[in-house]
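Quick one:
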Amino acid sequence: MIKSIPIYYKYITREFLLSFLVCFLFFFFIFFANQILYLAEQILSKRIPLVDVVLLLVYFMPNMVSLAFPFASLVSSLMAVSRLSSDNEILSMQCSGISHKQIFLPILILGAFLAISSFIINDYFLPAGTIEYNKLLRKLIYANPELEMESFSAKRYIDTVLITGEVKGKNIDNIVILDRTTEGNKRFIIADNVILEDDKDGNSIISFSLSDVFSHFAEQKKEFDYSYFKADEMIYNILLSDLSVSVRNPGPREMSSYDVYKSIKEKEKKLQEDYNNSIQTNDINYMNFTNNFLDLSSVNISKEPGKRNTVNNEMIKHFNNYIQVNYDTTFDRVLQIFRLEYHRKFSLPAACILFVFLSYPIGLFSTKKSGKSIGFGVGLIISVLYWCIMFAGTTLGIRTNVSPVFAMWLPNIAIIGIASVIFSVRFIK
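Output:
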């Protein structure tokens, strides 16, 4: 016969869940407000239908939820334990024969549940939401090409680069266009004023009506041969399908962990193939270099030992620099980013349960006058520190060849270390 759940389990669970609800809404609102400000600047100002704006927010919600879960679990567990400790309810439970392990167990189970839920959101709902978000954003760009035009920005579309001045609705003050002619020659076009024309014929193009135009291009096959022209007006067209290239494709952050893992293996295989090819190429270069070195060393400088040593040292120095540059093919920045995001998909949800280990002993130090308020304040401080360490680890991982495991699990390692120290101080006598 299954035993009934102890009443203190239900009591602690209710206290934790109420605090979690408050904390989750708090963090969710912070990320939600940030996204609202972004949409207000990029989309709402362009008079996009409200329904589409709401849909964009809905598709972006998994991203906000995935970030809110770990920090909400930290602050809520601190608030719950602090409240129980400040009201001497934990002391009352201990007097009734309930140990700290029994009190901590329901909080630990809830932390594990939140960790699993956070991982599912990161691994399934976030990629699905991002795909729909990009689809809708691409659709809005097709219907409103001016969404892509930002003031004082440079954007690439296939073989075309647009450098814009101030953008006012469908009007652009000053524009520079870098592209290629039909013959493949590099060209640049400068115009003082631009008007975005609507695609009335349904040709899936965006038309720029240019005024006061100057264009220049050089012949690649002929040295010192170039052409230019001036015009009062000019029509320049770009395919809308090219505009969609600027809409960010789902990166590792928006892919499932399995897909990221497959991408990592594919990139590692390609990198190894490139490395092997580089080794073969450099071996050939080494042989050529050796022959050239011997030829140079055999010149008539044998009577001048000092000069011969100088030549030898310079040749060896240049060769060592050559080897360092050409053999450094084991680091790929894109692959490093995929590895970082792969470990992030596990480290961030794992923080939900690790935060519980940290919050329980800290919450026991609460006094009668502090209660939930001190738990909330301490939780915010720890959340900021955790975010800073994770940001530092990500930056370090992107800029250097540091281990992705170390870079992304560093905040969690810090939590485990601090929690272990506090547990030992609080419970080991």
